[in-house]
Structures are given as structure tokens and as C-alpha cells.
Amino acid sequence: MSATMLLAVDSARNEPERHVTAAAEMVQDLASKTGDHVIVLHVHEFAVGRFGRFQIDCDDDQGELVAEGIVARLRDAGITAEAEIRQADYGHVARAILTAADEHDVRLLVLGSSTKRDLPAVTFGSVAARLLHFSRRPVLIVPIRAEPRPHEEPAESSAAVQ
Q1: Which of 23, 62, 63, 108 could cysteine-pair with 112, CB 3.0–4.6 Å?
Q2: Does the pLDDT value for residue 69 go beyond 80?
Q3: 34 found inside a domain
């Protein structure tokens, strides 16, 4: 395996969601310590309907904007990084991510967890669940960082014992 990590990202309204941001921060932290090269991958998902093939994951160029923004932040932190955009048919995003991981011989796949429920989407399964099930490589799923509630004080790191 090479000294390469793959960060799989999705997009939402031209700005990364909290789960993408948390995963990007984790990759930045890891890569700054290991010196790994980072590939930031966005997979456009397409469906075929009565009027032809159309993109269903995001608006045009949103995935590219998110991936390039993360690459810019990683490069600013001194990490070698590149963006990669792929396409997949509906329901095959995980397969496209695994193919990219194999082609680049990555040692770690990273993505953010976007679920806010206790149970994942069971009917069709999520991309994260499919990656965990089918990957022959380590997969790191970064949870959304909990933000303190307005009425809560941040927890102190240690309490003095008397």
C-alpha cells in the first residue's frame, strides 16, 4: 500500500456539511503527522429516466467546488493533495469509491458520517455501510462533532481530586 489516504466527500449547497468538514479536519490531522498524500474524491451519481441520464447527487460543479476547497485547505496546511471526480450509476457510489481506492492503492478510506439517527438507512443501506461491508482496506468514518448546547458549559478536561 502507498502512503495515500482517500477522503470521500459529498456536497450540499456549495458548502461542505458538518460531516464533510469533520472528516476533512481528521484527514488533515492524520496526514500532517504521517506525510501521506491525500486524494479528495467526489462521485457524481447518475440515474436514467424517461428523458435520459441525469445527475442526482448535486447541482453542476458543486462536488468539484467542495473537493477543490478541501484540497486548497490541505495544501495550505502543507499537505500534498489532489481532487478527483468520478461518476457512478444510481446506487453504485460505494463501488466507485472502492475502485478509486484500489487504483490508488490507498491505505485508508475516510468519510464523514452524515446520519443523525441511531439507525442507519436500512432499506437500501448507506454508502458508509457498504464501504464497511465490502472494503478490503481500513475505513474511518468520522462522526459529526457535537456542538455544546447553548445552556451547557464545555466539559473541563480534568477535575482536581482533593
Answers
A1: 23
A2: yes
A3: yes
User: Does 135 fall in a domain?
Assistant: yes
CATH classification at residue 45: 3.40.50.620
Q: CA of 152: how far to CAs of 23, 146, 147, 155, 156, in Å?
A: 25, 12, 10, 9, 12
Structural domains of the chain, count? 1
pLDDT over 90, % of the chain: 53
d(CA 110, CA 89): 21
pLDDT in tens, 84-126: 999 999 989 999 999 999 999 999 999 987 655 555 444 345 8
Q: Is residue 100 in some structural domain?
A: yes
Cross-strand partners of 7: 40, 110
Domain, as residue range, for 76: 4-142
CA distance to 18, 19, 150, per residue, from 142 (Å) = 10, 7, 24
